[in-house]
Amino acid sequence: MAQDDGTRDAAAEPLVSILMPVFNQASYVHEAIGSAQGQTYSNIEILLHDDGSTDGTTEIVEKLAARDRRIRFTRAERNQGVASARNRLIERARGSFICWLDGDDIMLPDKVRAQRDFLVANPTIAAVAASFHQINAAGKSLPVRNWRAAGGRLEMFIPELATVSMMYRRSALMGAFPLRPLRNGSDIDLVLRVAEFGEIVKMPSTLYVRRMHEGQMSRSAGSVHVIAIASNIYRALCLGDIIAGTKIDEAAILRRILRDRHVLWAGVAKKGENGREHRFSLVLVLLHVVRRIGTPGDRLAILALCLRYAPWALVQVVHYWLKRRLQIHSRYR
Prior knowledge:
This protein is of the alpha/beta class. It folds into two domains: 16-219, Alpha-Beta Complex (Spore Coat Polysaccharide Biosynthesis Protein SpsA, Chain A), CATH 3.90.550.10; 224-331, no CATH class. 43% of the residues lie in helices and 18% in strands. The chain is built from twelve helices and eleven strands. Helix 6 runs parallel beside helix 7 (224-236) and helix 10 (276-293) packs across helix 12. The two termini are 38 Å apart.
């Protein structure tokens, strides 16, 4: 029997678009879509784009779409990457508010309602994140490092961000559109660019469930998250942007960051106390760069710079890495 499309009592309520890029997620996509269908907020559309799946994901989505008019489905003949899939979904979205759902994750029932109500009540906020819970492939709970917040405002520059937990005001999202072709880092780059159009805050409520499993491409994402953060620093310091064109030369970007280290530190130093978040970000970026491409001499030079300009940020970054390393052993069990 066809499901009700949820529009009968929602004519005066703003439409919310739930966007789902999917690729080879046959084991989880039925549950993910079901969590979108089960939202307590009625006026939604559920847009899916299958990025060339070969494992039966397409057939599952087609069957669900045939039974629910809220689901609109497109498919690419070959895999074109998650940034392309997200851009196609944004182009089709009609909602005043837009949120994501990965094909292996779960929305808790009140997620859309709670975040939509928050954005309506706070018209100057560009986007709102939610706390999240992590599970493994079998649904077992895992420890999670959630977003850090100070006074409700997100500290934007830690790479372990549940960007899929966010809901965007359409105008802010379109200001940063399209997503740029960073392999598995385009979502963080998007968040950082949306933050230039307005404040992003975090709700304390746990509204999203992330599933961590061996098949996730993000485990081999290389330097893309760090490049997105570095791009944000360059823009904030009015040094141009290090991401340009349709292809990302990761090695060349890392070499440029290493060459520019003194210029970057000088720019952050001029910001004084207002540059606190950027000092943390720059330490994070530079330590990653020298781990990937630096010589022993480069490593000593970067360590000396960090100790001179931002010793507390250096301690924070090392502490974050150590905690993350301890967690990663249990994450996929």
